[in-house]
Design brief:
317 residues; mainly beta; six-stranded antiparallel β-sheet; 21 strands; elongated
């Protein structure tokens, strides 16, 4: 190591129990070359994530904060982390222990600065902690100085090694959230040419309520105990998160287009991936609904309203 490099490393060698060394060997698992690096800062891109790569049977990605991780109040440094990708594919309660090494190429000397935990401590990756790394990976002043070789012609090269040591199940963890000041969300749906509907059911457009997506399902010829005698109406949770449950209060309503005598039902329900719709198979009799003088079906058109309020959310961790 040259005297100049010794001085550079001495200025930030022992922070955060970090070991910094020089290696002639390139990263084993992943290399990321970034051209026009200065555009990341000029375009105020606070965070850059690489594409996923595989190591130790899992998918990972590099996460780089070109101006430091502001959420951790990092200044005048580049922050670099290793993050577990596709974490939703992990079994609930699963954790992965890994030793990580992060690299930065010195293009002047064709070798790498390597950062790792000073005692090669295993890091535990799980759904509550998906990334590990270094808040102060390298000072910006050191990185930007072309004489150091880290940024040359506005190009730099990062890398990563990930050595999975063990995998194991963890105790069951969960997050139960009660929504403060829940918001009632309303959606209106006009159904035309009702008498010509030939499918078992039709769906409304997707709408948002409580950070989740919902649809209304209309069964024109009924469903279950209402088949052939009633119009059935259901609220459905669209693309529910795996193993999550959403507790919602909702009202489904068919508007009376002649007066304010609307037909409605109201319920509360825990929606989930295994139980993602709830409603009424006998919402209104077909004969009463279809009578033009009543006002629910006018000129072969009906109007359906949904009001949804999410009160609680349960998520496994």
């Amino acid at each position: 190591m040259t005297p100049r490099k010794q001085g550079i490393y001495a200025s930030f060698l022992f922070k955060q129990n970090i070991s910094r060394s020089i290696s002639d060997a390139p990263p084993t698992h992943y290399t990321l070359k970034i051209q026009s690096f200065s555009l990341l800062t000029k375009n105020t891109i606070n965070k850059y994530e690489s594409t996923a790569f595989k190591a130790g049977g899992y998918e990972w990605k590099l996460v780089i904060y070109p101006n430091g991780n502001k959420s951790k109040n990092v200044k005048e440094n580049i922050s670099v982390y290793l993050a577990m990708a596709a974490a939703e594919s992990l079994q609930t309660g699963w954790e992965v222990h890994a030793v990580l090494r992060l690299f930065l190429l010195d293009q002047n000397n064709d070798n790498y600065m390597v950062l790792q935990d000073a005692v090669r401590k295993e890091r535990q990756f799980h759904r509550m902690k998906l990334e590990w790394g270094f808040d102060e990976f390298i000072p910006l002043k050191t990185f930007n100085d072309g004489a150091n070789g880290f940024l040359v012609d506005d190009t730099c090269v990062f890398g990563a090694d990930v050595f999975v040591c063990k995998e194991r199940g963890r105790e069951k963890r969960e997050c139960f959230q009660i929504i403060k000041d829940p918001i009632l969300n309303k959606h209106s749906w006009q159904v035309d040419n009702f008498s010509k509907l030939s499918t078992e059911y039709i769906e409304s457009k997707t709408f948002n309520a409580g950070d989740h997506k919902w649809k209304v399902k209309l069964y024109p010829n009924g469903k279950g105990t209402g088949l052939g005698t009633h119009v059935s109406l259901y609220l459905a949770l669209e693309s529910p998160p795996p193993n999550s449950e959403i507790y919602a209060e909702f009202t489904l309503r068919i508007l009376n287009q002649l007066n304010a005598n609307h037909d409605y039902d109201k319920a509360t329900y825990w929606f989930s991936a295994s139980d993602k719709e709830h409603g009424w198979s006998r919402f209104i009799t077909t004969s009463y609904f279809s009578h033009t003088s009543v006002g629910y079906l006018v000129k072969d058109t009906c109007i359906i309203e949904a009001e949804v309020t999410v009160h609680r959310v349960y998520n496994p961790l």
